């Protein structure tokens, strides 16, 4: 077991197994004495260190948070994006792992060479499309019958989403993402040779009640010029890349204080058909889903933050904040 670092849980489990007799200490010693041979697959060359993979994971953690904000604003529903894995595999293996029909967005990232692929699971893509068209976010996988309008809407949305990739890479290199291709069949897409090593960042994405994966495939040729910058030593040797002067911090705080922030007090919600909406006339009553004596929900942006009661101030309609709403992942915002 030399060379391995065990977690506290693994240590406790090992001691428990030894004390109960499930494992024999003598057998462990014999196994350690035996010469171990590790099989190395030259077709699956590991061209990135664990340290570099961790740096890429941190970068995409930031990208996941940016995507969460972007999609929530565009779709006006609950959205959560998080990194679940980062692996280096041959390009051919990645192509075999994704569905035969899926959403493939190809981007160039100058000044870096090569192209980056963003694969979006059809369940997620159609849920987004349904929300953009006024639906509830229902996903119906009919990727083989994608219309020109649906293709244009999807490609535009993912193009704008990937523009945020620039911010995630800002501390490493200034890139300018440019959409170059939109495809639904992986077999028609050949970015690099089948044995080329690629880094695949998998993002678990939740849109309302629909969950799926967004995979970002980065070939080695793209990362090769910046590999030295993906190490801890680079960050330690370049503290200025992460620190800001007091003047910069003060300027940033001033801009934040002057930023407009939408605050919305909701009386309630109601679902009606389009026919009912078209027949609405003056004097009609719409029944809301809240009681008349129930507190209102005050949203900051699209996030529920406060409870309030309606009233008037100087002949103007107003609300009085009653309390703070806790819960969810946004308590610290």
UniProtKB/TrEMBL annotation:
Its predominant location is other
- GO MF entries: cytoskeletal motor activity
Question: What keywords does the record list, in alphabetical order?
Answer: Bacterial flagellum, Cell membrane, Cell projection, Chemotaxis, Cilium, Flagellar rotation, Flagellum, Membrane
Q: Which residues form the Flagellar motor switch protein FliN-like C-terminal domain?
A: 255-322
Query: Which GO biological process entries does UniProt record here?
Result: bacterial-type flagellum-dependent swarming motility; positive chemotaxis
Instruction: Provide a GO CC annotation, any one.
Output: bacterial-type flagellum basal body
Q: Where in the cell is it found?
A: Bacterial flagellum basal body; Cell membrane
InterPro entries the record matches? CheC-like_sf (IPR028976), Flag_FliM (IPR001689), FliN-like_C (IPR001543), SpoA-like_sf (IPR036429)
Membrane topology value = Peripheral membrane protein
Please give the superkingdom of this protein's source: Bacteria
Q: Which Pfam families match?
A: FliM, FliMN_C
Q: Which family does it belong to?
A: Belongs to the FliM family.
Q: Please name the PANTHER family in this protein's record.
A: FLAGELLAR MOTOR SWITCH PROTEIN FLIM (PTHR30034), YOP PROTEINS TRANSLOCATION PROTEIN Q (PTHR30034:SF6)
What's the protein called, per UniProt?
A: Flagellar motor switch protein FliM
Species this protein is from: Domibacillus mangrovi
